[in-house]
Amino acid sequence: MTAGFRLLLSSLLTPLLLVTVPAAAQAAPQPAPQPAPRLRVLTYNIHHGEGTDGKLDLPRIARVISDQKPDLVSLQELDVKTRRTGGVDEPAELAKLTGMKVAFGKGIDYQGGQYGNAVLCRFTIQSSKVHALPGKEAAEKRCALAVVVKPWPQGPALTFVATHFDHTRDETDRLAQADEVRRLFTSEEGAGPMILAGDLNAAPASETMKRLIGRWTDAGAETNAPTIPSDKPRSRIDYVLFRPARVWHVVETTVPDEALASDHRPVLAVLEWRGEPVVWDGRAAR
């Protein structure tokens, strides 16, 4: 090839090399994958706000709750306008102090007011219902408070159940209460995702827990950390359970180091949603 021919060929190819690819033909940047949505679930027996120092201190309880940044909270042993706690509506006051929404479930009438369980929630509570649990005639009446919430603007509704089982040495009532919870909340496979949290007054190896774990998964099974007494915990009786197992992944379960605010320590479970795609904080997830 002569020098002249090479020069001619170069002049013909140069315009082709300078042609740019239209923007529409370039690969569009892909959005970064969004993390799967998570729920922070707390359960706490607050001993009507009275700490191990004998002081009634709801702001202290509220700080313990808020420090964990929960989305859903199951609370046990709350007073509503009783003489013991000076006529305070404890669920309403804790909702005010934490900036969360609230539902209350009465277990019994007590000292001119009421006593039972409550749910604090970051989401709008769509509905709530109190279910009486069985027990011996002379025993303190127990209940399960079930609320329905929508954690995601687009996605399934979630049933969150707060409960407190019988505390006596005889397990008969706890077994009946576990059976009733199974009947109420696990009879239909298509009922949707559920979380149950509370003071079940039962050790992990007890028959009570065996009856529940057949239908529910224990978020704290791996850590198995004790929750009472709060100063030096030796026993585990406070739980976060969920179902169905396939739609949740346990990120972590912890027992915060809080020895003063109540005779129980709280339990925090962080659950990651692995079910159908949802919209989380305005963005599609999974």
Quick tags:
33% strand, alpha+beta, 286 residues, disordered C terminus, Deoxyribonuclease I, Chain A, 14 strands, six-stranded mixed sheet
Summarize the structure.
It is built from five helices and 14 strands. By secondary structure, it is of the alpha+beta class.
Give a written overview of the molecule.
The chain has about 290 residues and is of the alpha+beta class. It has one domain (about 40-285): Deoxyribonuclease I, Chain A (4-Layer Sandwich), CATH 3.60.10. It has helices at about 5-15, 60-65, 90-100, 170-185, 205-215, and strands spanning about 40-45, 70-80, 100-110, 115-120, 125-135, 140-150, 160-165, 195-200, 215-220, 240-245, 250-255, 265-275, 280, 285. The radius of gyration is 27 Å and the shape is globular.
Order of helices and strands: HEHEHEEEEEHEHEEEEEE
Indicate the percent of residues in helices.
Answer: 10-25%
Number of domains: 1
Q: How much of the sequence is in beta strands?
A: 25-35%
Q: Name the CATH homologous superfamily.
A: Endonuclease/exonuclease/phosphatase
What is the CATH architecture term?
4-Layer Sandwich
Distance between the termini: 60 Å
Strand order of the largest sheet: 3-4-2-1-12-11
- Characterize the quaternary organization of these chains: single chain
Spans of at least 5 consecutive residues with low confidence: 15-21, 280-286
CATH topology: Deoxyribonuclease I, Chain A
Profile the largest sheet: 6 strands, mixed
Count of helices? 5
Give the integer mean of the pLDDT values: 88
Please tell me what the overall shape is: globular
